[in-house]
Specification:
The complex is a heterodimer. Chain A is mainly alpha-helical. In chain A, 72% of the residues lie in helices and 0% in strands. The chains are: A mainly alpha, B mainly alpha.
């Protein structure tokens, strides 16, 4: 077993098990912690795939900033398990969801088995692949418009959350 | 190197887990986390294709997806807190005032 396969199996198990734990956890705080585990496993995948800068961003932005925001809201609202125990209006939905998920996975297995996803022949990577310099160069030349649109999106989100959080004066 | 099907398969599994999470849970915070799972599975697919095609364009997409996810979480959690303040409860099945 090569090192890459070994790393893939271990990290993949961590990612899938923590993902399942996120959606089955009773306590939202546990779900947040499992999701952080999942994000760390994905960051390790990014390192294996030579995306160092993105792995760094994954830990800094996702596991750091976004999950702390989740933790804050969970603690402010104190929703520990109280919501879902009361009643379930659509009990059949769970079983339909699981059945459709199985269908989706079978569909993917059929596509993968048909051999239509060919593995491209990856040549030798450039020395700077995955570092911040080529990302910055691409971002400010070829992808300048998406970059600017993203900044407008962030501005809108900022204004929107301020409007939502503002107290009504009436 | 491993065949790219491995990484795309893992990405598909994580996406399915996220989709099931949105469907089976009624807690809006956990539904949000399931959406994050789905976004991250897309990121994994982008990064692996970027590596196998030896082009860095996928990294830019991941960068933008992360920004969109951050914006979405800020606004979405703001909405959840606002609903909780006005109703004292956030079961998504009960939030049907806007139903036509």
């Amino acid at each position: 077993m090569s090192f890459e396969l070994f790393a893939f199996v271990i990290l993949g198990l961590v990612a899938v098990v923590s993902g399942i734990a996120v959606i089955t956890a009773k306590n939202p705080i546990h779900a947040v912690m499992y999701l952080v585990t999942n994000f760390f496993a994905l960051a390790m995948f990014y390192l294996v795939l030579a995306a160092q800068f993105i792995a760094f961003l994954q830990i800094l932005v996702y596991a750091g900033a976004i999950m702390v925001l989740f933790l804050f809201v969970v603690m402010i609202l104190n929703l520990t398990g109280a919501i879902e125990s009361v009643r379930d209006k659509l009990p059949a939905q769970k079983w339909i969801a699981v059945a459709l998920a199985v269908v989706l996975m079978l569909e993917f297995a059929a596509i993968a088995g048909s051999g239509s996803i060919a593995t491209p022949r990856a040549g030798a990577l450039a020395e700077s692949f995955g570092t911040s310099k080529p990302i910055g160069l691409l971002l400010y030349s070829q992808y300048l418009l998406p970059f600017e649109v993203t900044s407008v999106l962030l501005l809108i989100a900022m204004v929107g959350s301020i409007v939502l959080a503002r107290r009504r004066e009436d | 190197m491993l065949p790219i099907t491995y990484y795309v398969g893992l990405s598909a599994m994580l996406f399915t887990i996220g989709a099931v999470g949105v469907l089976i849970r009624r807690n809006p915070i956990i539904m949000f986390m399931s959406i994050e799972l789905m976004l991250n599975s897309a990121n994994l697919a982008f990064i692996s294709f970027s590596r196998y095609l030896n082009r860095m364009d996928g990294h830019i997409f991941v960068f933008i997806i992360m920004t969109v996810a951050a914006a979405e979480v800020a606004v979405g959690l703001g909405i959840i807190v606002a609903i909780f303040k006005s109703r004292g409860d956030v079961n998504v099945d009960d939030l049907s005032e806007m139903k036509g």
